[in-house]
Design a protein that fits this description.
By secondary structure, the protein is an all-alpha fold. The chain has one domain. About 40% of the residues lie in helices and about 0% in strands. α1 crosses α2. The termini are far apart. The mean pLDDT is about 80.
Length: about 90
């Protein structure tokens, strides 16, 4: 992996907590920060055109989670839901 050097400013208290956490986990401070950034921001994910506009609404995660053998449910929904032949 190729690294880019950057400079960030941290408050003294957070810096001290990060140093203690890095020592506890037996990591360098730089590695601890890289791991935290990776965990929060991760790798870029591909998003479909459908998901791009709806990412903020978790309701849309239910799309496609159910499977059914019914192929004509939109046409014969009364039959499938109520058992009534139309």
């Amino acid at each position: 992996m190729q690294f880019v050097t950057t400079n960030i400013r941290l408050g003294a208290e957070i810096y001290q907590r990060l140093r203690l956490k890095a020592a506890y986990e037996r990591k360098s401070l730089a590695q601890l920060i890289r791991d935290a950034v990776e965990q929060v921001y991760g790798r870029p994910q591909r998003t479909s055109r459908l998901r791009k506009g709806r990412q903020a609404d978790p309701f849309f995660n239910v799309i496609g989670i159910c499977r059914s053998r019914v192929k004509d449910g939109a046409v014969h929904h009364d039959r499938d839901i109520y058992g009534v032949n139309s």
